[in-house]
Amino acid sequence: MAHRRAAVVALTILALALPFLFAGNRFYAFILGITYLYILWSSGMNLLSGFTGLMPLMYAGLAGIGAYTTVNLVMKASVSFWLAMPVGALAAAVVGVVLGLPSLRLRGFYFTLSGLVIQTALTMLFVYVPQFTAGDTGISQIPPPSIPLPGRTFPLTGVWLEETLAVAAVLTVYLVRWITRSTLGTYLVAIREDDLLTEALGIDVVRNRVLAFFISSLIAGVGGAFYAHYMGFVSPRSFDVLTSLNTWLIVGFGGQGTILGPIVGTLILAPIPYLLQELYLYKDIIYGGLIVFTTIFLPRGVYGSFLFYRRTRAAARAAASPKPEVARS
Fold first, then answer.
1. Pick from 34, 43, 28, 31: which is nearest to 227 by CA?
2. Cβ neighbours of residue 223 under 8 Å, at least 6 residues apart?
3. Distance of CA 151 to the CA centre of its chain
4. Cβ neighbours for 91, distance < 8 A, ≥ 6 positions apart
5. Which of 251, 283, 318, 254 is nearest to 47 (CA)?
6. SS3 of 155, please?
7. With CB atoms 3.0 to 4.6 Å apart as the test, which of 134, 145, 209, 312 could cross-link to 81 if both were Cys?
8. What are phi and psi of 154, to 5 degrees?
């Protein structure tokens, strides 16, 4: 237990220190910022896909609700980002619950299909409500977050913005870790394994799914708000179904249903499109090849397969170890 705590503290310190280590190279610092955003998003999606057994294909659309709400409050109503971001996240959570409530009674393929329909509807909304989203043109020149100080305002740019994203990602991982170790987390895993049996035991399946969906949508909205102000530009293509699929692939690649799985998946997959820009003819092949390889040879994901291998070895050692003889009277 002590070794685990030390490893968690070391990883947290490393995550918070990396922005300063990459401060001298803006290209790598930008990739690091995108990686932090996807750690935040994939951890939130993992709460649904990994621990609850639901595949939320509308996830990017909910992130878009959070992004557009925050951007409109900041740019049109001159609201501080730190006040607009919680409002945007709450809007994403409310929209997610309202649109997703009917489908939360569904299971498996039918829930996934309903999520795809909701995502398509949200994408169409982003395109055809230009008063809110500027349509296909998108919204540009989005200012970075800033911290009000006495007599001046300190804009969070460069390394400080990456550090803010690092803090947001770390807090999200800790939040999901805490939830999965709570009573709610126990209920969610039980629902994932057998929702009918869980309901027969007196646990309200729909209520707990709604709560998980609300929290996951809230995280999506927070990520959307940070994404918009980090990139400085958003359009409907920023939050289409491909973004949902990429996030889900990251979770599955790393190992869904684990805390470190989405982090491992993000660290491997998120930087690839940027690091292989010069190999644009082959980067999609490499990206797809990694996913196919993992699906065939590591079906539990990279980190999930590692955990399975370690547990299997521990069980084999325990079975092979000599058992103490019982003293005969």
1. 34
2. 37, 40, 41, 44, 63, 66
3. 37
4. 65, 66, 69, 221
5. 251
6. strand
7. 145
8. -105, 105
Q: What phi and psi values does residue 324 have, to the nearest 5 degrees?
A: -65, 140
- The encoded tokens of residue 284 equal 């999609």
Retrieve residue 187's tokens: 């209920």
pLDDT at 326 over 70: no
- Residue 210, classified by CB atoms within 10 Å of its CB into exposed (0-12), middle (13-18) or buried (19+), is middle
**Contact call for residues 237 and 249 (beta carbons, < 8 A):** no
Pairing of the two strands 152-155 and 146-149: antiparallel
The H-or-E segment that residue 162 falls in is helix 159-180
Query: At residue 152, what are phi and psi to the nearest 5 degrees?
Result: -160, 170
Two tokens, residue 203: 């646990």
What tens digit of pLDDT does each residue of 189-234 get? Answer: 999 998 889 999 899 998 999 999 999 999 999 999 999 999 999 9
Angle (nearest 5°) at CA 12 between 7 and 15: 125
Encoding tokens for residue 280? 């644009």
